[in-house]
């Protein structure tokens, strides 16, 4: 019989057979946690930003007709109302396009200043990702207004 600090320790003996139950419980717990986590993320996680539908049409007349069509879908215009709305919708679409053309340079100036400040904050690995995102954003901003005067439909 030995005395001292090692007296109470028994030598390690490997198990006589492999125990599947603890391994199976661990795998099931891991998979269930992943499924529950994914479900909670889909319910509580960030939602994608809603996209605003682009007004199709290349001319002010086409844009106005599309606008009237969307209004009709929402409120079910009568034929008489639709005719009246079409008459003034073209005028407002033209005015909208004129305003967009006037403010477009200011929007781009503000966005470019924002870009400069973002580049000053980001580290080197983040900058290429930001630049791609910013270019995509600017492409969307630039394509919204007509590039021609609102009173001049494209192709004429």
Structure notes:
The protein is an all-alpha fold and 156 residues long. It has a domain at 60-143. It contains four helices and no strands. It has helices at 20-44, 60-75, 79-121, 126-143. Helix 2 packs across helix 3 (79-121). It is elongated and about 105 Å long. The model is unreliable at 145-156 (pLDDT under 50).
**Total beta-strand segments:** 0
Strand content: under 5%
Mean pLDDT: 80
Q: Count up the helices.
A: 4
Q: Please write the string of helix (H) and strand (E) elements.
A: HHHH
Radius of gyration: 32 Å
What distance lies between the first and last C-alpha atoms, to the nearest angstrom? 109 Å
Structural class designation: mainly alpha
Note the overall shape. elongated
Q: Major sheet: size, sense and barrel closure? A: none
Spans where pLDDT lies below 50 across 5 or more residues: 145-156
Percentage of residues assigned to helices = 55-70%
Name its key features.
disordered C terminus; 156 residues; 65% helix; mainly alpha
In short:
The protein has helices spanning 20-44, 60-75, 79-121, 126-143. Helices cover 65% and strands 0% of the residues.
Topology summary:
Layout: H1 20-44, H2 60-75, H3 79-121, H4 126-143
Helix pairs in contact: 2-3, 3-4
């Amino acid at each position: 019989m030995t005395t001292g600090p090692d007296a109470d320790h028994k030598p390690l003996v490997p198990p006589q057979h492999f125990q599947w139950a603890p391994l199976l419980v661990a795998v099931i717990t891991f998979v269930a946690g992943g499924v529950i986590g994914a479900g909670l993320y889909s319910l509580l996680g960030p939602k994608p930003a809603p996209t605003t539908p682009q007004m199709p049409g290349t001319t002010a007349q086409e844009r106005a007709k599309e606008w009237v069509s969307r209004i009709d879908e929402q409120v079910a215009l009568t034929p008489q109302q639709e005719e009246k709305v079409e008459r003034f919708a073209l005028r407002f679409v033209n005015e909208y396009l004129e305003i967009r053309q006037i403010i477009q340079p200011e929007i781009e100036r503000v966005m470019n200043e924002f870009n400069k400040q973002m580049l000053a904050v980001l580290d080197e690995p983040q900058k290429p990702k930001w630049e791609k995102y910013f270019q995509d954003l600017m492409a969307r901003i630039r394509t919204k207004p007509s590039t021609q005067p609102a009173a001049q439909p494209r192709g004429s």
